[in-house]
Amino acid sequence: MNLEKVIFGFFIVLAATLNFGFVYGDPTDPNQHHLWEFFVAFVVNVIATALKFGDRTQIGAIHLATSLVAVLQLAAAALVWFFAPPGPLSEGTIVSIVSLSAGAALANLVSVVILIAETITLRR
Amino acid sequence: MNSTLLLTLRRLRAPIILLISIFAIGMVGLVLIPGVDADGRPWHMSIFQAFYFTSYTASTIGFGEIPYPFSDRQRLWVTAIIYASVIGWAYLLANILSLGRDQAVRKAFADRRFRRSVEALVEPFFLICGFGETGRLIARALDKRGRRFVVVEIDETRAQQIDLMEFRQVPLALAGDARLPASLEAADCARTNVVACWRSPTTTTPTSRLP
Q1: CA of B1: how far to CAs of A58, B108, B136, B190, in Å?
Q2: Domains (ranges, CATH) in chain B?
Q3: Contact, B125 vs B150, CB < 8 A?
Q4: Is there a contact between B9 and A51 if contact means CB atoms under 8 Å apart?
Q5: Does the CB of A53 have a partner CB in chain B at under 8 Å?
Q6: Interchain proximity B9–A53, CB inside 8 Å
């Protein structure tokens, strides 16, 4: 067992689960999507991206690409949140935040699938 | 393709992740700890304000306590952020500076520069493998006739010395083993007119090949 691999897998799966957890729920209801969960999902996604730096293999490149997509989507969602009018979030705003995050969740899912596929092909 | 950037980022992974963590923890504390606004009402920072504050504090710019003066509780937390983030920055900077001394990174940058310069050569050129006595003579002769040449030399110090020698044209040199296909490929050997000269440790046997 390799500690680096554990950390790598941990952050990739955590990025996906947090992202999914934030998206999960009624997309029109701001009460079902917590700001802090979004914040933590964003930070973990950025860390997962940093962990993927510097792998020259094809799989490493796709890994990095999916993470960059996820961070970009989450950053867009954060900007929507930032520019939302003050006070409670309107239905339209929360829907667009959740749908952007759902896109990030899909990218994270791809990342997890690659991780699993990589692990399975390693076994002989 | 851009392996130098990836190599650099890979070496900086640990400090980058440390800095991200310090930022995140600092921001969480700033948002959670209540402050007091101008009218004496409790007030919480937004995540964006916390990010802004952490950014200018961590980079030692220090715009001060905005938008309202901090409470002592906030100041206690900010003290912790200051020490942690300055250590994080220092660690990152130390890593960036030590990259400049890292042999692997320097070689990667030098190789990339060489590849680009060779690619940029418009005119036909000669590839000299091994810059021993024969290689040097051939280089001088080519230079006198106004021909461009590219050198692949196995000895690193000797490859660096080529820059200091007097030639009419700027010589391009790669420190690498000419027996390896990668070195020849870097020197764009498919485009050269003649691959000239070979230096072995014991004997010098010039050979040439037409394309």
Answers
A1: 11, 12, 33, 20
A2: 3-100 (1.10.287.70), 103-209 (3.40.50.720)
A3: yes
A4: no
A5: yes
A6: yes
Q: Give the predicted TM-score (pTM) of the model.
A: 0.74
Q: Cβ(A11)–Cβ(A70) under 8 Å?
A: no
Question: Is the ipTM reported for this complex over the cut 0.90?
Answer: no
Taking only the tens place, the pLDDT of each residue in A44-69 is 999 999 999 877 788 888 999 999 99
- Contacts of B43-46 spanning 24+ positions with Cβ under 8 A: B43/B68
Strand B125-129 and strand B148-153: the pairing is parallel
Min distance A117 CA to chain B CA atoms (Å):
23
Per DSSP, the three-state class of A14 is: helix
- For chain A, domains (ranges, CATH) are 3-121 (1.20.58)
Whether B6 and chain A come into contact, CB under 8 Å, resolves to yes
Query: What distance in Å separates residue A11's CA from the closest CA in chain B?
Result: 12
Per-residue pLDDT at A18: 96
**Distances from the Cα of B134 to the Cα of A27, B28, B130, B164, angstroms:** 76, 68, 9, 18
Q: How many CB pairs under 8 A join A and B?
A: 34
Consecutive 10-residue averages of pLDDT for chain B (211 residues): 72 91 94 89 91 89 86 92 91 89 80 85 82 83 86 82 81 80 76 59 49 42
Residue of B nearest to A64 (CA): B6
For A67, left (φ over 0), alpha (ψ -120 to 50), or beta? Answer: alpha
